[in-house]
Amino acid sequence: MELSHIKELLQRYLEGQATPEEELLIEQWFAQTGELPAVLPADSKEQLSQEMLSVIRERIGLPDTAKAAPVKRFRPWLISAAAIVAAVAAGIYLLLPAAKNNAVAVQPKAVATPAVIAKTVTVTAGRQLKKVLLPDSSEVWLNYSSRLRYAAAFTGTTREVYLEEGEAYFNVRQNAAQPFIVHTANVDTRVLGTSFNVSAYHSLPRISVAVKTGKVRVTAHGKKQTASFELLPSQGIAVNPVTLKGIAFEQPVEHISSWRTGALSFDQAPLGDIILALQNKYHVHISVQNPGLRSLACTATFTRNNSLKEILDALTLVHNLQYTINGDEVVIAVQEGQ
Questions:
Q1: Above pLDDT 90, what percent of the chain?
Q2: Which stretches are transmembrane (predicted)?
């Protein structure tokens, strides 16, 4: 990689202008090496190292002491900034040295995650579905624009993975002695051996879990209370991770994770959820004239061969809506005269 490109990439990261893929690349790189690339001149490495530390401290809410007292060389605990990057990305509790060597407890708002989990990250691009084989031979299918984090080996009493964004279908290898846990925001899904689907896109207000086989327990964690739900095959729950309120639903097992084959199945799903699925599959941007339209409930099943136009025709017909397409921009509105 050219020196100029490396510096440009780092600069975008420090200024908060990097893409999610570039941020992941930088943080993985920094986490693995514990230092900045050797091809940078010494003075550039020193400057960028300090700037990187400032960004890290800002992300976890600590004052930027580097400005008040410039450091002339990397101290041992500064070199461990790699661990800080990985931990912040995972959302764990951290103990960092303060100005007077007093430990400061920091609690980021992200999901609480053990540091060991930051070993493997799998990301699907916007136009890609991916199948992942976990260390215990459990299988995971990732939907478009999804990110999964897991350890290189499940050596503890539990098998824990983190769906940081997106949707995934899990086929979990049975092991009663080592429960399998999927973490998403404030919601955990715990199983022994089963198959189920989890949807946790940041743009949606709910985290949804639906069971195809076996039995799962879904637990939502609030500041002062928790809420738990047990699900059997064909049952699902849509949980608001803030209010902990859950809405139960039923879904035919053949429709659960139908997205893996390119099909789309919705059972009384809000139009907002359907819009996200269409955006992911057809790579368009869909807006609505009236935000209230996003709450309209729809039940429909579409095959992988249905075009975007065919799906929009069906959805808008049911609710007396209309739509326009201009390139990759789609606008849904109420029909004129309604």
A1: 43
A2: 77-96
Q: How many domains does the chain have?
A: 3
Does residue 68 share a domain with residue 198? no
Same domain flag for 20 and 138? no
In this structure, are residues 149 and 125 in contact, taking their beta carbons and an 8 Å threshold?
Answer: no
Pair (86, 165) in one structural domain = no
CB-count burial class (<10 Å; 0-12, 13-18, 19+) for 41: exposed
pLDDT at 149 over 90: yes
Please give the Cα distance from 259 to 315 (Å, whole number). Answer: 18
CATH of residue 281: 3.55.50.30
pLDDT by residue (tens digit) across 237-249? 999 998 999 999 9
Residue range(s) defining the domain that contains residue 313: 262-334
* E strands, the chain, in order: 94-97, 103-106, 120-123, 130-133, 139-142, 147-150, 159-171, 180-184, 187-191, 195-200, 207-213, 216-221, 226-231, 235-239, 246-250, 264-270, 285-288, 297-302, 321-326, 329-334
* Residue 128 pLDDT level (bands cut at 50, 70, 90): confident
What single DSSP character describes residue 294? G
Report pLDDT for 216. Answer: 96
Phi, psi of 38 (to 5 degrees): -70, -20
